[in-house]
Specification:
By secondary structure, this protein is α/β, with parallel strands linked by helices. It has two domains: 179 residues, Glycogen Phosphorylase B (Rossmann fold), CATH 3.40.50; 139 residues, Rossmann fold (3-Layer(aba) Sandwich), CATH 3.40.50.2000. It is 48% helix and 13% strand. It contains 16 helices and 13 strands. Strand 1, helix 1 and strand 2 form a beta-alpha-beta unit. The radius of gyration is 19 Å and the shape is globular. It binds uridine-diphosphate-N-acetylglucosamine and uridine-5'-diphosphate.
Amino acid sequence: MLSVVGARPEFIQAARLSEAIRARHQEVLVHTGQHYDYEMSEVFFQQLGLPRPDYNLGVGSGSHGWQTGEIMARMETTLVETRPEWVIVRGDTNSTLAAALAAAKLHIPVAHVEAGLRSFNKAMPEETNRIATDHISDLLFCPTQTAMNNLEREGLGEKTRLVGDVMYEAILHSLSIAQEQSDVMARLSLEPKGYLLATVHRAENTEDPARLAGIVQALACLGEPVVFPVHPRTRAALKQHGLGLDGRVLDMPPVGYFDMLLLEQNARMVLTDSGGVQKEAYCLGTPCVTLREETEWVETVQAGWNTLVGAEPQAIRRAVTEFHPPDARPALYGDGHTSQHIVRALETYAP
Ligand code: UD1
Ligand code: UDP
């Protein structure tokens, strides 16, 4: 089996599954090189025990067409050389789509992990990546019933399997290790529930100077410390638009997974446009204010633990003071054995 990773969330999504595959099969791990900074890539390999990639395609950054095309071409060479039984992709990045396309064209079966998510906003690059990947994949591993229903509506029901969520499984495995190993709370002199945690990187928020300025303005005057690990795309956009981080914002580079889990768990509230961070906030029992107009993780909103506010400063400020989730927080993301379910489904697959 050949597994593909390339961007930050994919390393986290891949770790448990890689271990489950390697318990019974051979795995070839391919890193596309879409993310390459130490804190966007290597740190996750170290913390999650993800094996060294067998291939690093070293693609780096570029426009959507260039990056997707370049990964596809390099992946094709790797696939011709390795001829795997399955290609496993995850999520909705350019690496996901490019690898799935390269495999499908060589008639190698593709399994898509975290399939069926939809924002119904085609302006997002990720929405195109998800739809296209789902439609060329042979097995679609869904984290939620909503994802199953989305795929059923698109005529893909027969290929779906409801397996739960790999990032929830990662939390169950890593939280106690993070609590032992991370000193982030002391290092940043933070008190539990005494700060907010923010992350921003979506194209819609970083490429639109008005939206980015609105978010930055809101973060500066929330009256509480805001821990803000800044994604490299956002760092570049802040510089380009001449925007600074003021007030009680703790501006820092991206943090490792263990620090991030503790920061999420101990925050009074999370403010984010990240898909993974919305989900992790829910799993860790931290209220989430989402800096977008829609979400793929609709169950977190329906459960009352996530609120969609967009990028307008007043709406953000209001949510930070007024949003209160209910006591109940139903389990949404499976039984914590998602990787085992995936491996079994791959083993028993009959086209
Ligand atoms: C990508 C994914 C997005 C995912 C996110 C996770 C696509 C279309 N988008 O967005 O779905 O949520 O990863 O973080 O695939 N950069 C660095 N160092 C790095 C990586 C990136 O400096 O290690 C900078 C480069 O200037 C680059 C920019 O960040 O141009 C954007 O990186 P890219 O991978 O294209 O998109 P992300 O915004 O990271
Ligand atoms: N994450 C991290 N350090 C950070 C920000 C995020 O370890 O500084 C982790 C986070 O805990 C989650 C994943 O990265 O597991 C989410 O990735 P990201 O927000 O980049 O992408 P998305 O989930 O939106 O695709």
